[in-house]
């Protein structure tokens, strides 16, 4: 027996160096994970800060986060569909439709914001259920179904906003989402809560596993993870809490944008669903081997429909954020480059277009890359044309990394 | 010893084509029953009838001596019949534990109970004396063909199954891995399970089986003890349906 090592229970206790070695092996074997996105982020930020010092100001940092928020949230939803090896090309305009519903209910009907938000999200859910049913039950490729929906929703937005008028949103709650900031103290408090909660979860899990004689993460590794989160979060909150108003005497501008904790909450929720529930496990299974999932008694059609529901529901949230940021809805909300940026964000972050591989965190990493490109190139004074070309090239690069790492995985027998 | 699973007079047609004619088949606990036959002899159809994927046209199905109705794969699974298909049906992107519990995850509330699943998986692999995997948390994609087969078999055994049916488990394996899997097959039977092994390889059949059932053009040519027959006789049964006193006479069971 050539590959004999040890009985499964007596698996060697992992050490820090062991974990690092394991990670290096996975990367060499073709499982790049978030590495390209993190690497790209570092390179882009370095280049932009050297070329345009204004890139590194607190004001721009806050701007960057709100700029990428809508796309990131749509990308988070797309991850669920991409996990199944499907795609939703209509997510951009679905967010536009939901934003239009929100705007109309707020302005023309004069309804309170929570009713409008609920209606917008419900619209997304209905859209997702319809798309998913057509894909799963009729068996039309999702590419075609959602391409048709892409056109249809584009028209629907035009019809909803009556041929291209601009509906401006005055509701203070909605506008606050992407334009107002948490009090600095609350920013610190939320960060502390997050770090302590994360550390407690990790430690509890490790303790429980160790007490049952299972392989647990070493304390040092947990400390490193918690430390990294605390440092990164701390730096971000510190910078965001600096005064960034040009004229502090007139108006003070400090704090974490309100949209950031919303995204973090969605990240925690999405990660929980994917990693800790049977539903999430089944999503990965269907994406990895639909036939195996079917034989294991998983209802593949229902998984598909639900993934589209989540995707369009998240698109609705993205649409609300976009409407908030612009304080208005027009026929171009969720249009033009939004969808491609969102797909790009998910793929750049490391979610595979072939299904079975991806995390909600990927959407955030990729969304940040996209936002940095858009923001940095804007500061450099490049036209939209150049921005599109560069973003397109980055998307192609990310998809290329995905395909190549898959090939490499096949060559090393890891697939 | 009474057979744990017994079929009598099974007929099965697909439209005008009758695939199984009056087939009798029995499987005993603690034994490996090899199911052999040429391509198109009806091995797969018979297994699918046992597993509840195809409904039989006529015939009787006994489990533990009692007659039962099998209408769906779920019925078969509830009785404790597990089939490991040739393509294994594993998800490459999931790890060993996740694959073994796929579709039947343990959970506490809505949260997956990973620790219990990991313990059960480890115990099952240990009881099968599987020592070839580095970690039960490694992805199936990184396993060799023999290891995958092992995981698929362990998945079938996990559920206190009584009958495990293996469809050509060694077809795609090298020499060393074949030996490993056959050892595992033998161990399953020694633990008291009834094992059905579908195979084309006479060496494998004679290496592990206690009984041999040979199908010929949809009829059960003979079901004999492995120690009572020779290689050549089994090959004859497979290719012509009879061998000396054994087998079919004019296409009817002797």
Describe this structure in words.
The complex is a heterodimer of chains A (415) and B (254). With 415 residues, chain A is mainly alpha-helical. Chain A has a single domain, classed as ABC transporter involved in vitamin B12 uptake, BtuC (Orthogonal Bundle). In chain A, 72% of the residues lie in helices and 1% in strands. Chain A has 16 helices and two strands. In chain A, strands 1-2 form a two-stranded antiparallel ribbon. In chain A, helix 5 runs antiparallel to helix 6 (142-160) and helix 10 (259-276) packs across helix 11. The longest helix of chain A is centred in the middle third of the chain and has 28 residues, at 184-211. Chain A is globular. By secondary structure, chain B is of the alpha/beta class. Chain B folds into two domains: 5-80 and 162-253, Rossmann fold; 92-160, no CATH class. Helix content of chain B is 31%, strand content 29%. Chain B has a six-stranded mixed sheet with strand order 6-9-10-3-11-12, with helices on both faces. In chain B, a hairpin with a 2-residue loop joins strand 13 and strand 14. The longest helix of chain B is centred in the last third of the chain and has 16 residues, at 175-190. The two termini of chain B are 23 Å apart. The interface between A and B is large, with 39 and 42 residues.
Compact description:
The complex is a heterodimer of chains A (415) and B (254). Chain A is built from 16 helices and two strands. Chain A is mainly alpha-helical.
List strands and helices in order, with pairings.
The complex is a heterodimer of chains A (415) and B (254).
Chain A: H1 16-28, H2 35-51, H3 58-83, H4 91-107, H5 113-138, H6 142-160, E1 167-168, H7 172-179, H8 184-211, H9 219-241, H10 259-276, H11 278-288, H12 290-295, H13 300-326, E2 328-329, H14 338-348, H15 360-379, H16 384-411
Antiparallel strand pairs in A: 1-2
Helix pairs in contact in A: 2-15, 3-10, 3-13, 3-14, 3-15, 4-5, 4-6, 4-13, 5-6, 5-13, 7-13, 8-9, 10-11, 11-13, 14-15, 14-16, 15-16
Chain B: E1 5-14, E2 17-27, E3 32-37, H1 43-50, E4 58-63, E5 66-67, H2 73-79, E6 81-84, H3 96-100, E7 107-108, E8 111-112, H4 114-127, H5 145-157, E9 163-167, H6 175-190, E10 194-198, H7 202-208, E11 211-216, E12 219-225, H8 231-240, E13 242-243, E14 246-249, E15 252-253
Parallel strand pairs in B: 3-10, 3-11, 6-9, 9-10
Antiparallel strand pairs in B: 1-2, 1-4, 4-5, 7-8, 11-12, 13-14, 14-15
Helix pairs in contact in B: 5-6
């Amino acid at each position: 027996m050539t590959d004999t090592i040890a009985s499964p229970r007596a698996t060697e206790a992992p050490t820090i160096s062991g974990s690092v070695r394991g990670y290096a092996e996975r990367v060499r074997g073709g499982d790049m994970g978030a590495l390209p996105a993190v690497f790209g982020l570092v390179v882009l930020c370095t280049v932009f800060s050297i070329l345009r010092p204004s890139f590194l100001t607190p004001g721009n940092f806050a701007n960057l986060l709100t700029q990428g928020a809508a796309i990131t949230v749509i990308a988070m939803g797309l991850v669920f569909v991409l996990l199944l090896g499907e795609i939703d090309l209509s997510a951009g305009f679905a967010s536009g439709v939901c934003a239009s519903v929100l705007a109309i209910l707020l302005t023309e009907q004069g309804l309170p914001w929570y009713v409008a938000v609920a209606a917008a999200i419900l619209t997304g859910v209905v859209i997702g259920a319809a798309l998913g049913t057509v894909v799963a039950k009729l068996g039309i490729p999702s590419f075609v179904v959602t391409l048709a929906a892409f056109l249809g929703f584009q028209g629907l937005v035009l019809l909803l906003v009556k041929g291209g008028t601009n509906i401006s949103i005055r509701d203070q709650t909605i506008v606050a989402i992407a334009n107002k900031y948490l009090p600095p103290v609350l920013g610190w408090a939320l960060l502390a809560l997050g770090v302590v909660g994360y550390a407690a979860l990790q430690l509890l899990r490790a303790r429980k596993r160790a007490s049952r004689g299972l392989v647990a993460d070493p304390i040092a590794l947990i400390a490193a993870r918690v430390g990294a989160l605390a440092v990164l979060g701390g730096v971000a909150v510190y910078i965001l809490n600096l005064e960034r108003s040009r004229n502090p005497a007139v108006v003070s501008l400090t704090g974490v944008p309100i949209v950031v904790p919303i995204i973090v909450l969605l990240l925690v929720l999405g990660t929980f669903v994917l990693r800790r529930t049977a539903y999430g496990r089944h999503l990965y299974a269907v994406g990895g081997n639909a036939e195996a999932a079917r034989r294991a008694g998983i209802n593949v059609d229902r998984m598909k429909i639900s993934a589209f529901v989540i995707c369009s529901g998240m698109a609705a949230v993205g649409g609300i954020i976009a409407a908030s940021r612009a304080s208005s809805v027009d026929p171009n909300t969720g249009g033009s480059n939004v969808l491609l940026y969102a797909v790009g964000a998910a793929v750049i972050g490391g979610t595979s277009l072939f299904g079975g591989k991806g995390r909600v965190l990927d959407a955030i990493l990729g969304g940040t890359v996209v936002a940095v490109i858009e923001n940095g190139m804007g500061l450099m004074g490049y036209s939209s044309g150049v921005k599109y070309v560069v973003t397109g090239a980055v998307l192609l690069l990310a998809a290329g990394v995905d395909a190549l790492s898959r090939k490499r995985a096949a060559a090393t027998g890891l697939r | 010893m009474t057979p744990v699973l017994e079929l009598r007079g099974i007929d099965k047609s697909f439209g005008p084509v009758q695939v199984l004619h009056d087939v009798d088949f029995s499987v005993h606990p603690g034994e490996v029953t090899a199911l052999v036959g040429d391509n198109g002899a009806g091995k797969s159809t018979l297994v699918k009838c046992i597993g509840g994927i195809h409904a039989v046209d006529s015939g009787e199905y006994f489990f533990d001596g009692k007659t039962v109705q099998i209408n769906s794969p779920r019925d078969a699974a509830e009785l404790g019949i597990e089939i490991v298909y040739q393509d294994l049906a594993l998800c490459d992107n999931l790890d060993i534990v996740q694959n073994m519990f796929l579709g039947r995850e343990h959970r506490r509330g809505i949260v997956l109970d990973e620790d219990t699943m990991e313990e059960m998986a480890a115990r099952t692999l240990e009881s099968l004396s599987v020592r070839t995997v580095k970690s039960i948390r490694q992805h199936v994609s990184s396993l060799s063909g023999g290891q995958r087969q092992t995981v698929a078999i362990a998945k079938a055994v996990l559920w206190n199954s009584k009958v495990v049916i293996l469809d050509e488990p060694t077809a795609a394996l090298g020499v060393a891995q074949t030996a490993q899997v056959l050892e595992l097959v033998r161990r399953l039977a020694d633990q008291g399970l009834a094992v059905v092994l579908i195979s084309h390889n006479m060496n494998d059949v004679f290496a592990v089986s206690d009984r041999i059932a040979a199908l010929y053009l949809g009829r059960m040519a003979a079901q004999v003890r492995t120690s009572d027959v020779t290689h050549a006789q089994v090959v004859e049964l497979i290719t012509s349906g009879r061998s000396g006193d054994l087998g079919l006479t004019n296409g009817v069971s002797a």
